[in-house]
Design a protein that fits this description.
homodimer, mainly alpha, Transcription Regulator spoIIAA, 2 domains, six-stranded mixed β-sheet, two-stranded antiparallel sheet, 26 helices, 8 strands, 64% helix, transmembrane (chains A, B), SLC26A/SulP_fam (chains A, B)
């Protein structure tokens, strides 16, 4: 693979493009387009943006990802969680419905795109590793709840506001008396229909003799049917005049690519949210892409994925869109419908462009309640309490990071929630590795093995202390090591030798080196010799670059057994 | 040891107090008092505070530490680095010389004390582990340079300001023309004298037949002699009228304990600097205490040290002082002079109290240049470029954290410098552990050992992939593991089994568990079975609390050898 085709995966797959592939990609693209139209409108509404912005975010970004992305089947576009984060981020600096709200949305996509491309070029994708699974999972669950709660107002047809659960609930309760009943009927009706489609339709279709894969795809078309029926109902019954909020006129035509207005204050205010959106979007997208690629034994290249998603967001930023990423449900449909190459994404983009040009007049009568119901059904499937239970059973530390993320997101806001979770998981990781497992070991009689004195019947002698450290030594745990050695030495007046058994030490950083020097020095002051045993090759290579081995009062032994034999022989 | 005496170490050593101990402690206390008087004045000047504040910070805090601290010989009081951090922190919210500057100093001590006690009670001392050795060492070096640069103005007798090196240098250059020559003569003279004392006096005294230990202590009295001589010179030559800045009148009498004025905005502004001061002070102090305790095979208890230092700072906060911690040079003198118990600290406090009551009139004629010269000599001994070279040779990652700390501290300020260093060392640690060493292994012919295929002649088979992971699995490296497995699998069309060899995996967190489940699932989709081998006991116990073992497509083997034998037998 040349350097150029590594950064332009389209050169790779484009070269082998055949007509059978074209047919498969086209079929998948048609299905994804049908699914994406209502999704685009709905997620734009969730982000507080006019419906056409959702459509714009589903055209050029898909083409950009097809050129630069490494997943064959990932379907990029507006997604729920990123739309919520967009609403929060730009809601803080501009009023919804204002011109600057639109500018902020495109800027946010552009900044996020530039950040993603930069991370890809400088191979900084590892930054996404800060987001642990429990934090991501907790965040998605909490976001799902928050989004669902926020959409209830559209089911009721009332104005309402708020970025946290208490704000949303308070505002809803206040506005409850002004509920619009036709809206409520549509909203609840669509909700019930969509739940039927999701939970029952497949088995009904299968019972009717339709193939499971086709049935699967058909159930994904539920929202499209709901959209069509409620548009017809709204038009026939003139529901707009009954006070039912409708999508309204959508400008016909395609966005003309242009750089958004550069506002330095706005860029500064959006930088932190853009980073969070980039990271969350990347993590979600890569995980979908990995899962799908694995099914066909294909590979994705995470650093190039950053560039692909970055290009998609830059494309969104210059075509009046807003932040996008790879969507889970949509990508699965694309994959199941038989998409073979990213060309399917280009055909989908053409489909959405055609819809934007010719279908938008039909959408004016679409009730917002229909979109809200579609959003609620989609996001509630993201809420995963089972994961919370699993994490609780597996690890209390991980659970507390997850709980902090969920509670922080629901009660303090999405950005604070993620940051709290990330900080807490880092703290807990450092806490765990700062108190590594260490065992005083002794020789198992008749063998060359050494085991924990607390768990096994082993041979020890009062003048030799053998200590096994079960963790790499680095700044977070060196002081603990110093304390532990000091403690063990203080209890043993007859002690003459300390042997640190390093079989599980994968690395020793500069802090740990200084601590070892300090321990060596302190033991020497107390008339005790320090030895090491079973030091790994790479660790030893590094130690040779310091003065430690010259200053060490004792020796480095290849094995703990050698150490004991030699020290006993010296007596 | 009862719970009470664990939190009140004085009950432990006080019970066994004898008259011989009393004599030894008293002698040490007299020597430390003589050393501490000029230090208190000098460090108060460095913190931008009136001289008496330095004396106050050397009375009650010493008594509090003697009651609560666990080190037998640590000498608490004002120290250079903490004084610099105090000047920076309170300089941002109050004008030097104003009443609120004094209030801020006491509040800072009080907040820092409360934080330290809280950390001690909740066993949060591990937070100090965030400060790696290279960061601390770089910070001390940079602070030393910054302090020395900041004191040059006192040698010249000019006004000057600034908290960063460029600010200090610019301000000095501007004020250079107004240099006061008598001040310069005193300053440079004292500087030369102190360097002579430090570098040559000991060998001169030893050559004269005085014992090395006594000579050592005598060299520490250099500043006292310089103080006495320059006071006499200033009084005799009436240097105050020549424009030589003098210490001036110091209020006679002791501070009356009182809570500082509570100003909520001020507390909020001081919280972050107080935390940094607490952590830096604690780390420095514990390291001194550990070193001294080790020499006599004594123990210190880090969590109780937090309480001891916290009590000292609270005492400082309620007696018109400012933040204190254990000082290196002073503690070594205390130790060398024969102090046996913390009672020496109490006697030192009495000594300083007497000095405050009766000696202060003598100090009015002390030139500030003398104190500045003493500070410069003291802090330049903290500057350790050799450590920078050592870290460079040992590890480029640690070096870059150190360089960031030094440059950040010098050019952006002490707080930013430390924070930059801490964040960078965390990032680099995560980066390192996020790409753990993994080796595809094969069987060494004729043995049960498995080694890296790239380094050894080993037996492998095309349908089995054995992968050894040399790091605990946690959120920062799980995605790398997923990527690596995906990559290895994509290259091997004949693959049927993947065996993860976990001999160096000390822990698997919830993120890693999910990644393993995902890997298992993805491999299954590709028709490949996943096995684990050599899983450690505690890791296995935890895995049993999840569904992973039920879902695992393959088996858990006790050893890699068992895995290969079994998988070959299945063929």
């Amino acid at each position: 693979m040349t350097r150029l085709s590594r950064h332009l995966p389209i050169l790779e797959w484009g070269r082998q493009y055949r007509s059978s592939t074209f047919t498969n990609d086209l079929v998948a693209a048609v299905i994804v387009t049908i699914m994406l139209i209502p999704q685009s409108l709905a997620y734009a509404m969730l982000a507080g943006l006019p419906p056409e912005v959702g459509l714009y975010a589903s055209i050029l970004p898909l083409v950009a990802y097809a050129i630069f992305g490494t997943s064959r089947t990932l379907a990029v576009g507006p997604v729920a969680v990123v739309s919520l984060m967009t609403a929060t981020a730009i809601g803080e600096i501009a009023a919804q419905g204002s011109e600057s709200y639109l500018v902020a949305a495109t800027l946010l996509a552009l900044i996020s795109g530039v950040m993603l491309v930069a991370m890809g070029l400088f191979r900084l994708g590892f930054v996404a590793n800060f987001l642990s699974h429990p934090v991501i999972s907790g965040f998605i669950t909490a976001s799902g709840l928050l989004i669902a709660a926020g959409q209830v107002r559209h089911l009721l047809g009332v104005p309402s506001s708020g970025h946290t659960l208490p704000e949303i609930v308070t505002s809803l309760v206040e506005n409850l008396p002004s509920t619009n009943f036709p809206t409520l009927v549509i909203g609840v009706g669509v909700l019930a229909f969509l739940y039927f489609v999701r939970l029952k339709l497949k088995s009904v279709l299968v019972a009717l003799g339709i193939k499971p894969r086709l049935s699967d795809i058909a159930t994904k078309a539920g929202p499209v049917l709901a959209v069509a029926v409620t548009i017809l109902a709204a038009a026939a019954l003139n529901l707009g005049e009954e006070g039912v909020p409708l999508v309204g006129a959508i400008p016909q035509g395609l966005p003309v690519p242009a750089l958004p207005i550069f506002d330095i204050d706005m860029i500064r205010a959006l930088a932190a949210p853009a980073l969070l959106i980039s990271l969350i979007g990347f993590v979600e997208s890569v995980s979908v892409a990995q899962t799908l690629a694995a099914k066909r034994r294909q590979r994705i290249i995470p650093d190039q994925e950053l560039i692909g998603l970055g290009a998609a967001n830059i494309a969104s930023g210059i075509s009046a869109g807003y932040p996008v990423t790879g969507g889970f449900a949509r990508s699965v449909v694309n994959f199941d419908a038989g998409a073979e190459t990213p060309a399917a994404g280009i055909y989908t983009a053409v489909g959405i462009a055609l819809a934007t040009l010719f279908l938008t007049p039909l959408l004016a009568n679409l009730p917002q309640a229909t979109l809200a119901a579609a959003i609620i059904v989609a996001v509630l499937s993201l809420v995963d309490f089972a994961a919370v239970r699993r994490v609780w059973a597996y690890s209390k530390a991980d659970f507390s990071a997850m709980a902090a993320t969920i509670l922080g997101t629901l009660f303090l806001g999405v950005e604070i929630g993620v940051v709290m979770g990330v900080l807490l998981s880092l703290l807990l990781h450092l806490y765990r590795t700062s108190r590594p497992h260490m065992a005083v070991v002794g020789q198992v009689p008749g063998t060359e093995h050494f085991r924990n004195v607390d768990r096994h019947q082993v041979i020890t002698s009062p003048d030799i202390l053998s200590l096994r450290v079960d963790e790499s030594l680095y700044f977070a745990n060196t002081r603990y090591l110093e304390d532990r050695v000091a403690e063990l030495v203080a209890d043993r007046p007859e002690l003459k030798h300390v042997v640190l058994m390093c079989s599980a030490v994968n690395a020793i950083d500069a802090s740990a080196l200084e601590s070892l020097e300090e321990i060596n020095h302190r033991l020497n002051d107390a008339g005790i010799t320090l030895h090491l045993s079973e030091v790994k090759g790479p660790v030893m290579d590094r130690l040779k670059r310091s003065h430690f081995l010259d200053d060490l009062t004792g020796s480095i032994f290849l094995s703990q057994y050698d150490a004991i034999v030699d020290l006993n022989a010296m007596r």
